[in-house]
Amino acid sequence: MQHNKVLILDFGSQYTQLIARRVRELNIYCEIHPFNKIPKEVDSFNAVILSGSPVSVRSENALHPDLSQIRGKKPMLAVCYGAQYLAHFSGGNVAPSATREYGRARLSYVKQNEPFFSNIREGSQVWMSHSDTIQALPDNATLLASTHDVTNAAYKIEGEQTYAIQFHPEVYHTTDGRHLLENFLINIAGLNPDWTPDSFVDETVADLKTKLGNDKVVLGLSGGVDSTVAGILLNKAIGKNLYCVFVNNGLLRKNEFENVLKQYEGMGLNV
């Protein structure tokens, strides 16, 4: 089964991993790639999210990826630096803010009948974290939302499925952030939220059966989560052809070797 995929381009934001987590919480598969290492198979992704960044779009070191295979061709959501990037390099204007805009704010204007802000109303709390501000929107842009201090808090590009927001929907303090991501990914981009833990297990086990056939596998166990999960999945796929090895290396905590072995007995692994 082929799942939808979201590409997150990382511009160095401290929140990028949080974006990925929020997308996955919507049961949608995503991958994070550096902004300057766009995957060659970009066509296999169904939507793209641009992260924030500590860098200014006005600096000589501005991060400037080639989005020609993405913009206007795929649904795209530009967050914070991404929103400023689109404005700065597409006919708009980004300038230093009089004060660093950091912390909670509330939407003072939301465009009516706009699918991106479906069921999100004026007064909704958002989280700002930027030192530049978008003074003029890029070409063909329509204003979607404002706060008291940030006029251009959200916009879209007409004729494209391109949306941009100055605030961070991925953080807890943006109260409707999950809803906004859901509006973009499911209602606008049309992605199917079917990437669940159950489907991941079923597909991984089926894939292992196909790849391994009747081969035997030796797996080193550490007692940690990663190797244990790998062991459980392999056990479901090939059963007695899996040989797990757990080494008492002398550096484990008191009684840890015996306790971990007992846990593995209860899991049915051949250790």
How would you describe this structure in keywords?
27% helix; elongated; single chain; 271 residues
What does this 3D model show about the protein?
It is a single chain. The chain is an alpha/beta fold and 271 residues long. Helix content is 27%, strand content 28%. It is built from six helices and eleven strands. The strands form two sheets. Strands 2-1-3-4-9-8-7-5-6 form a nine-stranded mixed beta sheet, sandwiched between helices. Strands 10-11 form a two-stranded parallel sheet. Strand 8 and strand 9 form a beta hairpin. Helix 4 crosses helix 5. The radius of gyration is 23 Å and the shape is elongated. The model has no long low-confidence stretch (mean pLDDT 92).
The radius of gyration over CA amounts to 23 Å
- Could you give the order of the helices and strands? EHEEEHEEEEEHHEHEH
Question: What's the shape?
Answer: elongated
Low-confidence runs of at least 5 consecutive residues: none
Please give the order of strands in the largest beta sheet. Answer: 2-1-3-4-9-8-7-5-6
Approximately how much beta-strand content do the residues carry?
25-35%
Distance between the termini: 32 Å
Summarize model confidence as the mean pLDDT: 92
Number of contiguous helices: 6
Structural class: alpha/beta
The count of strands amounts to 11
Main pleated sheet:
9 strands, mixed
* Helical residues, percent: 25-40%
